[in-house]
């Protein structure tokens, strides 16, 4: 036995006990003939005391300990004279009687403290040291707890966790696949799953009724802060259900997590919003509902005043920022610069301030009278002291710009607190997306998503207007998951493939197993998938999903700690019947 | 809502309720103006009744239902006149009032019954139909339950489930890696993990203290019935532990599973046996302890009787088969043929029968007197009516042959019951294995396994004799898991690499990240991994791990249902900077 207790558990009621602890030296300091060592393990920090007077040899040994040495200490638990109320173990200390150095340590390249002095690159390279920092480790503890609670919730509801294969078949539709050459089948390749979508549908055909899996998925896409080449999904599917059943079960799951993990109870049903409304009122399919500032359209109010910018615009609309009439010229200029940035691309920003008497003052006073502006204010529900921020231009683009402006104002006004959560279901997504470049429709979700029954007649006549039984869960502007009710009718599925431009041969080549399976009796089914990485990040209040992943990859898809990927031996490639073929 | 209840839950106390069920038509039969349909879902089977007299249209519709049609039925729960005691729902039936066909079905290529008429190949191709059979689905339900109980047990003990990456670095040591070309790093490859061994050790260096993960692992090896290219491990690691701590925790886990899943309580500690004893007494490092027949060595007893076969043999030994003196000439000939099969390779079989009076009769009466044979009997502890089966030859080979003979006799005597479980820890494995072909030592477990402290002085002088802190859990002759206490001392690790023939450069190239990590303070640590597929197979009483895997691959590594692996588009290969390079 290396230890009798952990570094996190000793309290006043242990005083007098002889204990053995093991862990890492967090820091040590000498003070008046005593040496104090903070000993750290996963569970906490306990103070050790070495006394020069009573045991000089032992104290000398302790004085030689460096940061991050691994040691084992035996001693007696004693009440501290000066207590540290910041530590759960801060009322006691261990009077050391024996010390064993289990492992020495070189000086770490950065400090192992909550606030580290290490940059991102060095912390990625020495990730095993970064993981010693309790702020990082706690994210992974949270991840463990959340995954466990998800399993507990779904198990209670008769969901079966079924492992689907990682070595599957490549399908050209969708994102790029990672592929794996097969040695036993030379010239052929497996693909790593982008999601177990078709496999979980097969499980429904098999009668599994309620499936889930917390599962690694893979997409060979260019990376961003919230994307990793491998990521983890909570993947779920149910049979004999309609959209309402799926939403209820998984709203329940998210509520369960909030309650168990964050102690937050949601007593009301989550807000629901159609995709059309989300786009119209928030310019986004994942609006941040922690705050209001719903878009107000006003094209009709602005016409006929010779203000060409508005008159020539397809769309004129804005938001009302409460209490912001005090914004200075400089602040308004900043906002103007913000919306004019190339990635937002607005041409300019019109404002109207309402002073404490409700008197308007705007950047377009030349075109609109105070009465006109007051009418605008009425439509926005503006009160004295409020500020209207108005953009104009093509509808889609301007709504997106207004969305960014709204989020910026939300941040400036402190309305996007990380400990406030505003869950939302976005429903009624369009079934198709039109792609200008290839001049064809793509499935917005995937080719198995069912259209709304009432929109089926529009499939051929007004394809772009067909709405899907598809839904996303959005919290605080982040899409955490989404899914759909699937097509379970072979004829409708054929129709869908045709609209997506698949020949029958292509459809069979790629999805033959699923199309065939349906012939033997498919139940109505649907489901969804949550991104576990994003869910944990949200619960942990992190900006990037990287910090809730033990060993993440960088933006070039490299694991700089392992130095992967790497070059293979020629013999290994030969055995796999492949060759490296450098691009010119 | 597609249903108010499942097909497994209605009982007498529901009589009179109006219900809606949905599921698959298991079978239907007409009898005296009535049509009876067995409706199946994951939860059970419920009988539906359609009455020609009361509703002819509905009954006609029911008569058109084929097997495996997916239907929805509304009706009233009624007590059955002729009850079926084999079904939990056998006391009731549903008098149907409405019937909706949700999906028709073609005739399945094999019957969806517990005893199917489908061969292995067709059932693999139509795996989604095979999974409808409750005997197959129950294995996956068991798998779900076992994985959940493992998580529950380990979570209680403060183990954290940490996901380690699937895209890692290839290491030439060990089995063949599956590799993944990196598009973003042309010419370089990731490898899929054969196990998260080094990553879990890094987590110990990070202070995670107790780690586990139920995780997919990959080995590109030729396949057998109990091997799949992708398999699932329960992977575990602990810090500040000795071998005893690890054995206790995981013996507890296996006991927990037996109790929760099979209702079997083991009140005694599991048997432990050194590897040396296992080889000596059972000729195997994974002896089946459901029965005795321990090997008895008798070279000394047989010498000097001019029986050249024994006199020239390095090893003479046998087993005592209780009550088998009645074995006929034909049965003994069968056993002789059995041991002479090429894969076993014994030259012949010597037997001694002890009749009801204890009088011996043997195949070597010419060389040994009745008194000699009685002395043999004494050493074996043979009783009247017992049969000795004796082999001779080179020690290692003969023990292995005797092991096969012992298992065969165990099977013949019905001593290998699938519902009896005999767990065993095999301990003190050798640290190294000598390979004749390459004339070097290999790590029996892996290069991070620690030698027993008392054997460290032998590392250079008697390398092959060094025992490891390594252990396997064996149940009923199947190795379910194994692990070791790791080396956490850099000097000892260097020594180990040297003995394994690594240059310093090679060691750094392959394991540099681990070697470097240790420099910053590594705790003593150790762990193990269980094969989940094997564990579930054992609990389910299956002969092959395939039946507890939802979508297994065949012996050529193919998923015949998905038709994977498959050929990629030329453009896909180009983007990955690789080319297929056919062997000549």
UniProtKB/TrEMBL annotation, chains A, B:
Compartments where located: Cytoplasm
Protein EC: 6.1.1.12
PROSITE patterns hit by this protein: AA_TRNA_LIGASE_II
Domain Aminoacyl-transfer RNA synthetases class-II family profile: residue ranges: 150-565
Keyword Nucleotide-binding in annotation: yes
Pfam family, one: GAD
This protein's GO CC annotations: cytoplasm
Gene Ontology MF annotations: aspartate-tRNA ligase activity; ATP binding; nucleic acid binding
Domain of life, source organism: Bacteria
TM regions (residue ranges): none
Residues that coordinate or bind ATP: 219-221, 228, 479, 531-534
Residues given in the record as L-aspartate binding sites: 173, 219, 445, 486
Main localization (coarse): cytoplasm
Annotated region (Aspartate), positions in chain: 197-200
Broad enzyme group: ligase
Statement: the UniProt record of this protein carries the keyword Aminoacyl-tRNA synthetase: yes
GO BP terms: aspartyl-tRNA aminoacylation
Reaction equation(s) it catalyzes: tRNA(Asp) + L-aspartate + ATP = L-aspartyl-tRNA(Asp) + AMP + diphosphate
Keyword terms: Aminoacyl-tRNA synthetase, ATP-binding, Cytoplasm, Ligase, Nucleotide-binding, Protein biosynthesis
Function statement: Catalyzes the attachment of L-aspartate to tRNA(Asp) in a two-step reaction: L-aspartate is first activated by ATP to form Asp-AMP and then transferred to the acceptor end of tRNA(Asp).
Subunit relationships: Homodimer.
UniProt similarity note: Belongs to the class-II aminoacyl-tRNA synthetase family. Type 1 subfamily.
Protein name: Aspartate--tRNA ligase
Highest classification ranks of the organism: Bacteria, Pseudomonadati, Bacteroidota, Bacteroidia, Bacteroidales
Encoding gene, per UniProt annotation: aspS
